[in-house]
Amino acid sequence: ASDLLETMFRNHKSHLKSQAVDTTWIDEWHETWVSPLLFILCEGNLDQKSYVIDYYLPKLLNCSPESLSYMVKILQTSADANTGSFNSRGALGALMACLRTARAHGHLQSATDAWRNLVSSARIKQGLIHQHCQVRIDTLGLLCESNRSTEMVSTEEMEWIEFFITYNLNSQSPGVRQQICSLLKKLFCRIQESSQVLYKLEQSRSKHEPENELTTQPPSVSLQQYKNFMSSICNRLFEALFPGSSYPTRFSALTILGSIAEVFPVPEGQVQTVYQLSHDIDISRFHTLMECFTSTFEEVKILAFDLLMKLPKTVIQFQDSEKLQGLFQAALELSSSTKPYDCVTASYLLNFLIWQDALPSSLSAYLKTQQATCGAEDKSAIMVER
């Protein structure tokens, strides 16, 4: 059906062009094919919108890429009066859906081109904190997705991503949380892939920019911006893991941190990576992750444990045997608790000690302490008998 649509688009376009004496034919073509699309995106039901976004819009843009600017102009004007609500995407939602689809199919020359010529920064921010969750997702998708895995992430995109994370970690919808985490992982992959291009440019000392990129700054500057951005993201995520933070917030923050650790692995050999999460993990943040084991939600425990497993063992080394013994003692006490989630917490603590190769020494120290305690009790008993 979608192929038939594209054939109809092209045939009608060719027919109008062959009969026209000026460029006004495009207005008739837009009235026939684009206007109904915009109406559905603004006023249609969910099934209609999904079909238009998945099938109709990509084929229309393939046939007439220049129609994107026409659609954006119409929707920008409409968005001033119809921004949407909690139950309605409105014209703003239609605008973000169009731009996201266009970028995903390669109809935007670059992100910078889109921001400068098509939509304002204020409009992007408006979409990132919209009441309707799908508008927020589409706006985030516009920033994260690209048809080129090595496309540079612009400074504007990085600023908007930080803005988004500030207000959207506490989503109550599991589906929305999953989409947010998935889209951000795509962004991190773009950063990793494009950074490899930048490293090659830097090594070859070439003054040429990657194809289709509109940046003129040296590769080293872009790499430093990437590193600063990733550090800033991690700062925000760890700040969200404060004691007592909600389950949705912890789920989102831990999942995103896990994606960062996965996408930016510890480099091996001559492979370079623009960022390493382990460099931003200090003892305070380690304790923050350990505190997540006290959550009553097992999924939070799992995410925290998996994140710790993705970090090099050398990141957190127990230099203080008393702290190590305290952790082991806490695990033993929790294991005998009558509360089920305490026993689960104990299992994660013990697994962590095993991963750190610290269980034998902890057990040995514990046995010595127990023997000393028993010896002291025996002496006390003898003294009492006398």
UniProtKB/TrEMBL annotation:
GO cellular component, as recorded: cytosol
Residue ranges annotated for the tRNA (32-2'-O)-methyltransferase regulator THADA-like TPR repeats region domain, each copy included: 29-301
GO biological process assignments: tRNA methylation
Superkingdom of origin organism: Eukaryota
Pfam families membership: TPR_Trm732 (PF25150)
Database matches in SUPFAM superfamilies: ARM repeat
UniProt name for this protein: Thyroid adenoma associated
